[in-house]
Amino acid sequence: KPKLIVTLGRFSMAKYFPDERISRIHGKLRNINGQLVLPMFHPAAGLRNPDTRTALMQDFKQIPLALDAARKHQAPPPEKKPEDEPPPQQMTLF
Q1: Rounded to 5 degrees, what are φ and ψ at 12?
Q2: DSSP 3-state assignment of 93?
Q3: 21-43 confidence digits (pLDDT tens)
Q4: H or E element: which one contains 30?
Q5: Going by C-beta distance under 8 Å and a sequence separation of 6 or more, which residues neighbour residue 56?
Q6: Alpha-carbon distance 85 to 46, whole Å?
Q7: What count of other Cβ atoms lies within 10 Å of the Cβ of residue 35?
Q8: Cβ(66)–Cβ(29) under 8 Å?
Q9: pLDDT tens for residues 42-90?
């Protein structure tokens, strides 16, 4: 369970915020069901638009602050006993 999820672009953002616009919520840390999520523009958008690049650079500066917030507000996950976990399964390609 990650301390912080950073979504890059509107498609990954839509998983957590289906009814939001990325231009409105980018760079704003949100708590979704106990999981901290930081939506950001996709880096490729910064290559196409100088204004988006400026916003993207500001959003990237939020990541260390969001990680600090995540470390302070999230309790460590409970330890699992090895016998509680099922054995790993090998996946096949076909």
Answers
A1: -70, -30
A2: coil
A3: 999 999 999 988 888 999 999 99
A4: strand 30-32
A5: 40, 41, 43, 45, 46
A6: 43
A7: 15
A8: yes
A9: 999 989 998 899 999 999 999 999 999 888 875 555 545 556 667 778 8
